[in-house]
Amino acid sequence: MSGLLTDQGLAPCTTCPIHRWSIFSGLNDADLEQLPMAVHDLAVSEGAVLSVEGLPSDKAFVVRQGAVKLERAGPDGHHLVQLLRSGDIWGFEGLDQLPYRHTATALEAARICCLEVEALQHWCERDARVRQAIRRRLQQAHQETEDHLLLLLSSSAEVRVAGFLSRWCRDYPDGQKISLPLSRQEMANYLGMSKEHLSRIMAKLKRDGVVRERHGWIQVNYQRVRAIYSGVLQATDAEKDSS
């Protein structure tokens, strides 16, 4: 791990708002008070590198607050393959004795739970609830990756942008100001289009009153962005049915 990061000590698992849908989702408060391993609470700054593709995966991570990007190296540089938010996990390859598959970088100041993989492996061997919770979270991450790939392969550029915004904002009230710590280039790469094309689409959405954006924050009219996303998908399905 590199960059500005501070170990805040042991994470307060019993009072953590995300533990109900994290890898500890099957545990009650009494279990959480007697965890057989240390869970460290890391305060990281924007740009901190938390894992590096190809290196031994001796630590696993859970995002408590903030956003993290996962990248993989290709012939023409690094490619953004996944965006992680509160409750998401990565670095669990070590449970299968595999190296990290991604380089993970904090997109903004974040709080991260860090677990020693060896201790986690021993715990999983003793407690089926933890194994099942980890499996569920990894399956969810795999499903989200497949959904994103399908979006890239089967949708127009405008629908890709609408689909991304609807997923990014889905856990917040309609119209709330939400952090969007991606540069235009990062967002364009993630959505498989040029920066210029993305900028034109975002400008149109702003003119139409669908989004408001300023200085790393965005406000989305969730119903309207979902209508763009769902309406075109329904039209595409109807075309397939009639062909």
TrEMBL record:
Keyword Transcription: yes
Pfam families, per the entry: cNMP_binding, HTH_Crp_2
Keyword vocabulary terms for this entry: DNA-binding, Transcription, Transcription regulation
Gene Ontology cellular-component terms listed: cytosol
Keyword Metal-binding part of the UniProt annotation: no
CDD domains with a match to the protein in the record: CAP_ED, HTH_CRP
Domain Cyclic nucleotide-binding: 23-91
Domain of life: Bacteria
GO molecular function (one): DNA-binding transcription factor activity
Protein name per the record: Crp/Fnr family transcriptional regulator
The species this protein was found in: Acidithiobacillus caldus
Taxonomic placement: Bacteria, Pseudomonadati, Pseudomonadota, Acidithiobacillia, Acidithiobacillales
